[in-house]
Specification:
rod-shaped; Heat Shock Protein 90; alpha+beta; 2 domains; five-stranded mixed sheet; 5 strands; 10 helices; 402 residues
C-alpha cells in the first residue's frame, strides 16, 4: 500500500478553500453547463470533492494528483459542471510542473500545448464558426497557461539556487585562498625569523659553552663580549620584526632587505664568531661588474649564504670555508663549501642544530623555481667537504644605456 507524505499546511488550506468555493457556487446554482440533465445536480459535487482532495497531494505527489485531476475533469464534463473544479485542475497542472520531476516539467507544457492546439483545430473543423476559438482559449487557460507559468517559476527557482551555490563556492574558494595566504605568510615569517636570529643564537651558544668549559679569564671575557654583541643585534632584529608585525607591515622607517653586497660584512662577522674553531672564511665573487639582480633573488641568496655559514659554525671541521657567487646566462649560482671530516674532529664547543635551516633554504629556492643541493662532496684536492649549492633564475635588471 502506497503511503503519501503528510500534506503541507498550505495545501490543506487551499483544499478547504477550494471546496468551500465550489459548494458556494453549487448552492447559488452557478454551473458551467445548463444542458446536462441526465444526472442529478448533486453529482456535480463528486468531481468537485475529488478534485479538492487531490489538492492535498499537489506538493507531495504532484504527478498522481494531476493524473487523478484529469480523470475528475473528464467526469465533470458529464455533469452540470462547477467552475471551482476547472480552476483546481489548472492549479494541479501548475503544481505538477513546479514540484514534479524535471522530466515532467519538460513534458507537461508540451503535452498541454498539443492538447490546446488539437482542441482548437478540432472545434473549428467541427463547428466551422469563429466562436469555436473560444473553446480552444478556455482549454489553453485551464491547461497550457498554468504549465507555462510553472515552467517560468521553476526556471527562476533553479537559477536562484544555482546563483546561491555559486556564491557559496566563491565564498569557500575565498576562504581557502585566505587560509593558504595565512599559511604562506606564516612560513615566510618563520623563515625570516630563523635566518635573522639563528646566526646570533648559534654564536651565543658556542661562546657561552666556551666560557663555561675553558677556565681562562681572557677567554671568558672574549666570549662574553661576543655574547653581548650578538644578544644586542639579535634583540634589535627581533624588535624590528615585531614592530613590522604589529603595524601590519608598515613602519616609520623602511625595512631594507639584505643584499649580496652585505656578504663581506656577513663573512667578517662569521670570522669573529668562528675565531676559536679553526675556520677561515673566503668570498669568491665571479659576478659581472654592475650586475643588478631582482630583490627576491638577492634576498634568497643572502639568506642561503647566511644559513650555510651558521651551519658551518655549528658543524664544520677546521679549514677553509668558501662562498662562491657566479652568474651565467640567466642563472645565479650560490655555493658554500666547508670542511667535513666528522663531528669528532672539530675542536671547541658546538651549537645544536634543529634542521629547520635546510627546510627554509629549500622553501626559498622552491618559491623562485630554482634548484638546491646540500650534502657531502669531494673538493679538487680530494678532501671531504659539505657543500650547499643553489641555482636561482635571475635575469639582469640593469637598465640598458641609451
Amino acid at each position: 500500500m502506497t503511503r503519501f507524505p503528510r500534506p503541507h499546511r498550505d495545501d490543506i488550506l487551499l483544499s478547504v478553500c477550494s471546496l468551500l468555493a465550489g459548494l458556494l457556487l453549487y448552492v447559488l446554482g452557478l454551473h458551467n453547463q445548463s444542458n446536462r440533465d441526465l444526472l442529478p445536480a448533486w453529482v456535480t459535487l463528486v468531481p468537485l470533492c475529488g478534485m479538492a482532495s487531490l489538492e492535498l497531494l499537489r506538493r507531495t505527489a504532484p504527478q498522481v494528483a494531476l493524473t487523478g485531476g484529469t480523470l475528475f475533469l473528464v467526469a465533470d464534463q458529464f455533469t452540470r459542471g462547477n467552475l471551482a473544479t476547472v480552476v483546481i485542475f489548472g492549479d494541479l497542472v501548475y503544481a505538477a510542473v513546479v514540484y514534479g520531476t524535471a522530466r515532467a516539467a519538460r513534458r507537461i507544457p508540451v503535452t498541454t500545448g498539443m492538447v490546446t492546439l488539437t482542441a482548437t483545430v478540432g472545434m473549428l473543423a467541427y463547428f466551422r464558426t469563429p466562436e469555436a476559438l473560444l473553446f480552444g482559449m478556455i482549454v489553453g487557460v485551464v491547461s497550457f497557461a498554468p504549465a507555462i507559468t510553472g515552467v517560468t517559476l521553476r526556471n527562476q527557482r533553479e537559477a536562484t539556487e544555482a546563483a546561491r551555490l555559486r556564491a557559496e563556492q566563491t565564498a569557500l574558494l575565498a576562504e581557502m585562498d585566505r587560509t593558504q595566504a595565512v599559511v604562506a605568510e606564516r612560513a615566510r615569517m618563520a623563515r625570516e625569523l630563523h635566518d635573522m636570529v639563528a646566526n646570533h643564537l648559534s654564536a651565543i651558544a658556542i661562546h657561552s659553552t666556551a666560557a663555561l668549559s675553558i677556565d681562562k679569564p681572557e677567554t671568558s671575557l672574549q666570549a662574553l663580549s661576543v655574547i653581548r654583541e650578538n644578544s644586542v643585534q639579535g634583540l634589535a632584529e627581533m624588535r624590528r620584526l615585531i614592530g613590522l608585525l604589529r603595524k601590519g607591515g608598515e613602519s616609520d622607517e623602511p625595512a631594507v632587505a639584505p643584499t649580496l653586497d652585505g656578504l663581506d660584512a656577513l663573512l667578517a662577522q662569521s670570522r669573529v664568531f668562528g675565531a676559536d674553531t679553526g675556520l677561515a672564511f673566503v668570498l669568491e665573487d665571479h659576478r659581472p661588474q654592475g650586475l643588478r639582480l631582482p630583490a627576491p633573488v638577492e634576498l634568497a641568496a643572502y639568506r642561503i649564504v647566511q644559513e650555510s655559514l651558521t651551519n658551518t659554525l655549528k658543524h664544520a671541521s677546521p679549514g677553509r670555508v668558501t662562498v662562491v657567487l657566479a652568474h651565467t646566462g640567466d642563472t645565479l649560482t650560490v655555493a658554500v663549501s666547508s670542511p667535513y671530516e666528522g663531528e669528532a674532529d672539530r675542536p671547541g664547543p658546538r651549537a645544536p642544530g634543529s634542521g629547520a635551516g635546510l627546510v627554509g633554504m629549500e622553501e626559498r629556492v622552491a618559491l623562485l623555481d630554482g634548484e638546491l643541493t646540500a650534502g657531502p662532496a669531494s673538493a679538487e684536492d680530494g678532501a671531504k667537504i659539505w657543500q650547499v649549492r643553489a641555482q636561482l633564475p635571475a635575469e639582469d635588471d640593469t637598465e640598458p644605456s641609451a
